[in-house]
Amino acid sequence: MKTFTHLIQEVQNKGRCHHCGGCVAFCTAINYGALELAEDGKPRYRDQSKCIECGICYAICPEVGELNDEVKKLVSWTPPIGQVLGTVVARAVDPEVQARGTDGGVVTALLLYLLDQGRIDGAIVSKKMGPFQRQPWLARTREEILEAAGFHFDTLATLSHFSQTYSTYSPSIVELKAVTQKRHNRVAFVGTPCQINSLRRMEVLGVVPSEAIRIHFGLFCAGNFQFGEGERKELEKLGNFQWTEVLKVNLKEELMIHLHKGEVRRLPLERLGFMKRHACQFCVDYAAEYADLSFGGLGAPEGWTTVIIRSIQGQTLLTKARGAYLELFPHKEDPRISQAALAKITEWSGKKKAMAGQHLEELYRQAV
């Protein structure tokens, strides 16, 4: 039976840990208390004497291939980018949701629909806690969901500590502990591909608290970009701006730095290798292939969101939310926009898989 010690040896020590928090989420949710997240977001032993060596933390790691076949069967995965029942370009109807959202505010609009209809008790999102700081959060009211809308900088800190290293990633999965404590059993989850992957592995094994997640919202992910002091200074030089001018940041086909005065600095992602997390070069999932619905700005006009429908549940939700909560991009303006968006996402996914394959091959070659 492999344990967390093996994860340290096989994943962390090789630089492949995504800090998704799945191992910690399971361990804390059932009150084993053996694991915790370090200040840099990396899982570690909190009290090794409490570890019962069940091996579940190892099995649910997205970098471990033990359950790959079972997870793909669970979500009816098909190549090249998972099950695709349809693709739409949409935005929220509510102007306030549009204004708060990163692209078209679709994720926020769907969460509000689910809450208003009494279909969820809350949603695991990330909450803004200060200038460019966010932490995982269980939002349980309309106000809390709206407060969490939009994309700024996500902190790598744990729930009780903030560092000065900012990132495009938030370990939202660790908030599953709050779901268990509050005894909620109807929760929506919003997260990255690696987090969705870990949750699906929990679902395959039937372990808590995976049964509480009623729908999985996955976010397109080109990688996790670190915004430490050195990286921020380098970005200022590349984009010709001052950090005090920044309003928000968005990731599409490039890194978009929105300034308070309305200007946008656009930086190609290929120029940002100096700030990309090492583990992301081994990830093969760009389009959140195991989610019920996948979201991102890629392929959509400014102010709109591309949505990939991956399950009947996701399709039903999208259909029912149309009208009062969501509107689709006008078909007459561009009748091929959905097909073009899917083609672009497939292209980006292929590039990410190819790059990950190269890096994994190099890693294995070094090991040999």
Give a quick rundown of the structure.
This protein is of the alpha+beta class and 368 residues long. The protein has helices spanning 4-12, 22-29, 56-59, 68-74, 95-100, 106-116, 142-147, 176-181, 193-205, 229-239, 312-321, 337-367; strands at 35-37, 43-45, 86-92, 122-130, 133-139, 154-155, 166-167, 187-191, 213-219, 226-227, 246-251, 254-259, 264-268, 293-296, 305-309, 326-328.
Protein model, in words:
The protein has 368 residues and is an alpha+beta fold. The protein has 2 domains: 67-159 and 168-224 and 287-367; 225-276. It has 12 helices and 16 strands. It has helices at 4-12, 22-29, 56-59, 68-74, 95-100, 106-116, 142-147, 176-181, 193-205, 229-239, 312-321, 337-367; strands at residues 35-37, 43-45, 86-92, 122-130, 133-139, 154-155, 166-167, 187-191, 213-219, 226-227, 246-251, 254-259, 264-268, 293-296, 305-309, 326-328. The strands form 4 sheets. Strands 5-4-8-9-14-15-3-16 form an 8-stranded mixed beta sheet, with helices on both faces. A 3-stranded antiparallel beta sheet has the order 6-7-10. A hairpin with a 4-residue loop joins strand 12 and strand 13. The radius of gyration is 20 Å and the shape is globular. Residues 152-169 have low confidence and may be disordered.
